[in-house]
Amino acid sequence: MNARIAYIASNTFREAVRDRVLYNLIAFALLLSGAAIFVGQISIEIEKLVVINLGLTAVSLFGVVIAIFIGIGLVSKEIERRTLYTVLSRPVRRWEFIIGKFFGLAGTLVVNTFFMAIGVFGALLYVAHKFTRPDALILVALYFIVLQFLIICALALLFSSFSSPLLSAVFAFSLFVIGSFAEDLRGFAGMAHGLTRWLATGAAYLVPNFSAFNVISSIAHEQPVAGQLILHNTVYALFYAAMALSGAVLIFEHRNLK
Amino acid sequence: MAAIEILGLEKTYMVGFWRKRPKRALHPLHLTVEQGEIFGFLGPNGAGKTTTLKLLMGLVFPTSGSARILGRDWTDPDIKAQIGFLPEQPYFYDYLTAHELLDYYGQLSGVPAKQRKQRIEEVLQRVGLTDVKGVQLRKFSKGMLQRAGIAQAILHDPKVVFFDEPMSGLDPMGRREVRDLMEQLKQEGKTVFFSTHILSDAEALCDRVAIIYKGELKGVGAVEDLTSTVQGRVDVVWQGTQVPASMKALGAECHVSGDTVRAVISEAQQDAVIDALRRERLRLISITPVRTSLEEYFVEKLRRAETSAGGAA
Ligand SMILES: Nc1ncnc2c1ncn2[C@@H]1O[C@H](COP(=O)(O)OP(=O)(O)OP(=O)(O)O)[C@@H](O)[C@H]1O
Ligand SMILES: [Mg+2]
Predict the structure, then answer these.
(1) How many domains does chain B have?
(2) Are B197 and B157 contained in the same domain?
(3) At what angle do helices A3-18 and A94-128 cross, to 10 degrees?
């Protein structure tokens, strides 16, 4: 990676840390330990189910919220506050700025997810007293969650490169919600006719397909994940994020700063 | 090779929310700044100074025209290692300390890690920002931010510096320091291009100035040329606390301040005035030809621009 991208990424990470983004971990820890203690009276099987389901869902939602809230301001806030003036008047290419921001935010989320993952495994150990082989599936679910974050970060950056933070937040959240039902949308598109069918199919394939990334409930029931799905999701997420980032770069390259 | 060549840069903004209409912030501008000059870019508020600097920095894109900096195309990102930029009312990542900010900017400008630490101490010293270790920029006063802004502009030892209103927000001491700094930069062989609407700053510093008004260049030249001597008027100063009757008789307008008196008279009266002072046994301090100040030149230019615009309408 080019050195300037690394510098921009690490400054973005530093900003997130100084803005106390990682404090969300406290809320996460409280939620998880509350749940672990609360369900501690029932059978071990149900306890594990609750901890895995709740824990991973929280990891995903906390991360999505962080990705969107930081992502939407990454470019527009720097334009608004004019902090970009003294960055872009250096030998920094505009695309390097966008890519650096992306890696900074993605890095923040990876670190955040890492600590949350420790929390989930800790809670699991607390309720079950030992790890079993199927618990390794949690790692796959976490991997999918991180892939999903990459897509959301890239989308938030894309919106941030041309619209206000508020609108970007609305766009990004809508896409997240719609994307979570992408499979249903595709099903619906298949049933429609005429123009509606074309539009619905187009929309269904354009929105990120987050349904495929959600394996939380199946792994909670200890069902294995197909290797092909792992490959497919990896390629899909990288491709989708790359496309969104290219869009962000294209827009930002031609933008007049305020 | 010139330091800066502006080849017809022009900027038209589209303004208005609903029905967009064009607003020309900068008419095609042609300007050449030589290496080693301190060049003043003068104009009243809204004249287009900041617009020109933003165009040169590649922050906004011109409607037409181009520029060259140190002989290279101005859009070439690598040329930016050779230039420093102080924006107007600079604002920085406020969660960083001055040291962290400068370290980050040093990284982006390609200053090797080994030199960064020392350079940072040097420039902070140079702009008078001492005792700021560990203080986040959000706790900086306006003048301190301005100083940090100057520090980041000269951090990487650029050959050409662009300052947008470098003295703004500074106290008289600070202004003086910045003026000295610009002179030092010139001594080191750097080119300084700065915008201001404070004419006395420009007058004291600049080798040449350009005057811009409503986006149009109104004049370029050496300060001496623009402030040419006013034909046949001299300024006489002598010691005294009141205006002698003989001077009143000559019809000279006199001003008393402290224990000196000053009068502006025509050259023809000069001998008569000196004789009168000698008769009164008053001590002559100085006789100097009157020059128009840059300010007068400026006001005159703008007034002419106004009337010609009014006449055309
Ligand atoms: N982003 C923009 N959109 C529309 N008009 C703009 C924009 N930026 C500047 N202008 C207009 O361009 C003109 C020149 O503005 P500019 O900021 O260059 O002036 P200036 O000489 O720097 O003034 P000041 O001394 O107040 O800083 C002004 O009339 C301003 O309204
Ligand atoms: Mg300005």
Answers:
(1) 2
(2) yes
(3) 50
